[in-house]
Design a protein that fits this description.
The chain has about 500 residues and is α+β, with helices and mostly antiparallel strands. The chain has 7 helices and 26 strands. The strands form 6 sheets. It has a 6-stranded antiparallel barrel with strand order 5-15-19-17-16-20. A 4-stranded antiparallel β-sheet has the order 6-14-13-8, with no helix packed on it. GO terms for molecular function: efflux transmembrane transporter activity.
Length: about 500
């Protein structure tokens, strides 16, 4: 095949040299030469189509088995070319050349494969020099920014808003009036409750007087009945009265006693039934409630802070704010916090007092520091159909950066652990087999496995510590596309970067 290519190359080169020295051909001459070249290519293609690789990988013409003719008959040549070669003759010159080149390439590949030219090159691997670095394990979490103290101001009073005293962005103090409601109906309700209370008190006073007089008379009746019964007892003993008279005086005494004991006595004085005292208590409670509602007609802030939302306006009813939003939202923006929910699988790495680096789009690439100040004692559902549980934590923003505001989402990175001047490898260089983790290096163009334990891990790298006593050295050729297929001693071929 090589000899064929060389001869063809020499022939074409000589032809080009002859063309360069000869006068410029006319159109007929050009067509004649192209036809000759096309016929030559056809002959070469026919020769190639009859050459196939032998079992030894060399190209030799295969001998075609001839069909035997009936006895006594000679096989007649047909004079026809194979159908494929006839189709080739119909191809364009360019297509013939491309087909010949591709066919030659296939023949070369098959020859190499048959001769085992690639079997000793080894497993292709990519490597980087092993080096010592610093590594940090971080936990990145997102959450809303809020004030350290916040309150939604609402009212359950069905009263019209008459005055608005603040707007969004105003600083307010605890107890400051934010809005005033219509007091007309509230003042009327207070008056009605006051009248009911006064009536209950007066009723009890009247009943106390009646009870005192009634009790006093009952005592007197009891004393008289007692004296009558004692006298009748003596008379009965002397036979002066009958048994029936004695029993009648005894019954009168018992009736007087029951009458006297039916009164409520306080300090020896009869007082009204306890139900009248209960009526006074109920009336007093209702009066205090109406007074409180009247007081609440002045809507006040319960904290020091900034008015961050105003959802009400003059003319609305306080309990009918649009979309059931609070009338006002107030937050203490002097100190900000992030409310973040941590997976149950990571919460063990979080501790109160841990530092955090906080970033947000509003900071334009800057960061602020934070500190974990609270970890919830209970978990909650993550939601979204997940069975995972999450635990809320609070990170307090430090430094008072004025660019960070409440109501946005920020990211906090918690530093879990770090290591310096240690051997660090990319995750792609690690592989597991059984219960062990390995890295692999190239030594004398062969694989050497090294079992390791992992130290500090980041998202893409890990600290490695050999467990078999191997001493790692900077500059070792670390295989970055490692896997269990890399057995100890396996030949490798280092791929260029």
């Amino acid at each position: 095949m090589d000899a064929l290519d060389g001869a063809e190359g020499e022939r074409l080169g000589a032809a080009r040299e002859e063309e360069a020295q000869s006068p410029a051909p006319n159109a007929c001459e050009i067509d004649r030469r192209r036809n000759e070249e096309s016929e030559e290519i056809d002959r070469q293609m026919e020769a190639l189509m009859l050459v196939e690789p032998s079992e030894e990988g060399t190209g030799r013409k295969k001998k075609k088995k001839r069909k035997k003719s009936p006895a006594g008959e000679k096989e007649k040549p047909t004079g026809k070319k194979p159908a494929f070669i006839q189709r080739v003759r119909g191809w364009s010159r360019k297509r013939k050349i491309l087909t010949a080149v591709c066919f030659l390439a296939v023949m070369v590949f098959l020859g190499l494969k048959a001769s085992g030219g690639n079997k000793d090159m080894g497993i292709p691997v990519t490597v980087i020099p092993l080096s010592k670095q610093s590594i940090q394990e971080k936990l990145s979490l997102n959450g809303p920014v809020t004030g350290t103290d916040s309150v939604d101001v609402v009212s359950n009073l069905h009263a019209e808003i008459k005055e608005m005293h603040v707007k969004e962005g105003d600083q307010v103090e605890k107890g400051q009036i934010l809005a005033v409601l219509d007091r007309t109906d509230l003042e009327r309700a207070v008056q009605i409750a006051q009248n009911a209370y006064d009536l209950a008190v007066n009723n009890k006073k009247e009943k106390d007087k009646e009870a005192a007089l009634g009790y006093e008379k009952a005592v007197q009746d009891f004393q008289k009945a007692s004296m009558d019964h004692n006298r009748n007892s003596l008379l009965f003993a002397n036979g002066d009265i009958s048994q029936m008279d004695l029993e009648a005086s005894a019954n009168a005494l018992n009736d007087a006693k029951r009458q006297m004991e039916g009164y409520t006595v306080v300090n020896g004085r009869g007082v009204a039934d306890k139900s009248y005292e209960l009526q006074i208590q109920n009336a007093a409670f209702e009066l205090e409630k109406k007074k409180e509602e009247l007081e609440n007609a002045q809507i006040k802030s319960s904290i020091d802070g900034t008015v961050v939302r105003v959802n009400s306006k003059v003319g609305q009813f306080a309990d009918k704010v649009e979309d059931d939003k609070p009338m006002f939202s107030i937050e203490n923006l002097e100190e900000l916090e992030l409310e973040i929910k941590v997976s149950e699988f990571s919460i063990g790495k979080v501790k109160v007092g841990q530092t955090a680096v906080i970033s947000a789009d509003i900071l334009d690439g800057e960061t602020v520091n934070g500190e974990v100040v609270k970890i919830s004692p209970t978990g909650e559902e993550k939601g979204g159909g997940s069975t995972e549980r999450v635990i809320p934590i609070t990170i307090r923003v430090q430094g008072g950066n004025t660019k960070l505001i409440a109501g946005i989402t920020a990211k906090a990175e918690l530093l879990i652990q770090e290591a310096e001047d240690t051997f660090v490898v990319p995750s792609s260089a690690l592989f597991d087999e059984g219960d062990a983790t390995y890295i692999a290096i190239v030594q004398d163009m062969q694989v050497k496995r090294i079992p390791v334990k992992l130290g500090v891990e980041s998202d893409i790298n890990a600290e490695v510590i050999p467990t078999d006593g191997t001493v790692l050295e900077e500059g070792m050729q670390l295989i970055t596309n490692a896997g269990p297929q890399l057995t100890d001693g396996a030949a490798v071929m280092v791929m260029p970067k």
